């Protein structure tokens, strides 16, 4: 995959910023899906893995 990205940028020398936008948008979209999935499925998955007494509430969040 890295070779494909390098070839993509080399082929698009005159439009470097535009060539960067598509891969950056794909990474951002994948990250957003991951955050949403973690928020929705994470608490349930923790209870399944560690037992019903395990609850990750708001006090566990940093900040």
TrEMBL record:
Keywords: Membrane, Transmembrane, Transmembrane helix
Residue intervals passing through the bilayer: 20-46
Protein name in the entry: Putative integral membrane protein
Lineage per the UniProt record: Bacteria, Bacillati, Actinomycetota, Actinomycetes, Mycobacteriales
Superkingdom of this protein's organism: Bacteria
